[in-house]
Amino acid sequence: MKSWQFLLFFGIVFGIYFIVNYYIFIRGLQAIRFTGISKSLYTTIYLLVAAAYVAGRIIERFVAGRLADTLTWLGSFWLAFMVYFLLFVVLIDLLRLVNHFLPFFPAFITSNPIKTNFILGCVALVCVLATVIAGRINATHPVVREINIKFPKSIQNDQNVTIALTSDIHLGAVVGQTHLRKLVRMINAIQPDLILFAGDVIDEDPGSLIKRDLGNCLKELQAPLGVYAITGNHEYIGGVKKAVQYLKKYHITVLRDSAVTLPNGLVIIGREDLDSRRFDGFRRKSISELMENIHPENPTILLDHQPATITDAVENGIDIQLSGHTHHGQLWPFHYITSKIYRVSHGYAKFRNTHVYVSCGFGTWGPPVRTSSRPELVKIVVRGG
Question: Which residues touch 167 (CB under 8 Å, ≥6 apart)?
């Protein structure tokens, strides 16, 4: 990414982040009406949690350790609180605006504005706290979803292949070894023939991950046809070379604009992430280039982290495309946005002869909270003709 584009992008992001936090901060002051020492304490705590995520991510770039991890963890939770505080505050302000022109608030609300602000502030606090806690519980209880796919091409030796698909683990400071071990147990429990990681296995800078070797349980994965992965945008954000080397350490084959033909004739095609050019100046190959040496009778599975090029997969006769990236919004109501951006934001679809599954992911990015989707491991049973 060019330096001016980088500065412009992050300037806009930080500008929005500051405005949102300032808005919530002021509304919090108005609701509780802090004074003196309590106001200073409120301001100090607010500044700490609001700056924690950014500070943690910056520190981990230079020194991977507990300070960076703690700040990132604290700031990650604040991102969820920030979203829902913003939604509640905006809702309350909109109701007040409507009431100004079309009065409908009962007298007990309008008669004492100070008391009303305090009550609304407490209600918002309780509702946001309950939402974040529920979202955190949801994020730590993944499920196994099973789908069956049949296509006319033959699979040699065995007509049925069981695939364990997972994506968007985001292993690092927020999603740690406990969650990864849960994934490994779930994968081995379904006894897959083949294991596929559809990108974003590692979350941004892998320094802390490598230092503490959080991924050592990956060596316990078992699949006779192998374990394959592709890069996602977060591998590129954090440094793709280090991320790929770490995965290879545990015998995970990373397909980088390449294909492999399994003993049963099934072809796995792995694309570099769509953002490879933006972050690393690398132009990934087109699907047609990747399929140049693949026999048309071989069944094909395309791993493409971002489900942005489904049309290309259909036009090139891909049998199955597997993607992730969207998290299906992760936090309500963002799944409405991802559903507008992508033809498939989550789940299964079929376009002509191409089967598509987009996973909402197993981990989380940013807030360790999920309110619009439940983390999943996908068991795919493929049956050839």
Answer: 197, 198, 199, 200, 232, 305, 323, 324, 325, 359, 361, 362
pLDDT digits (tens, 9 = 90+) for 177-216: 899 999 999 999 999 999 999 999 998 777 777 777 888 8
Q: SS3 of 59, please?
A: helix
Write the single-letter amino acid at 220: E
What would the pLDDT profile of 17-64 be if each residue is shown by its tens digit? Answer: 999 999 999 999 888 877 788 889 999 999 999 999 989 888 877 776
What is the DSSP pairing of strand 354-358 with strand 347-351?
Answer: antiparallel
Is the CATH number of domain 143-383 3.30.450.20? no
The torsion angles phi and psi of 229, rounded to 5 degrees, stand at: -145, 165
CA distance 315 to 40: 61
pTM above 0.70, yes or no: yes
Is the model's pLDDT at 1 over the cut of 60? no
What would the DSSP string read from start to end of 100-130?
Answer: HHS--S-HHHHS-HHHHHHHHHHHHHHHHHH
- Name the residue ranges covered by the structural domains of the chain: 3-138, 143-383
Residues 14, 189: Cα–Cα separation, whole Å: 43
Q: DSSP 3-state assignment of 191?
A: coil
Distance CA 364, CA 141 (A): 12
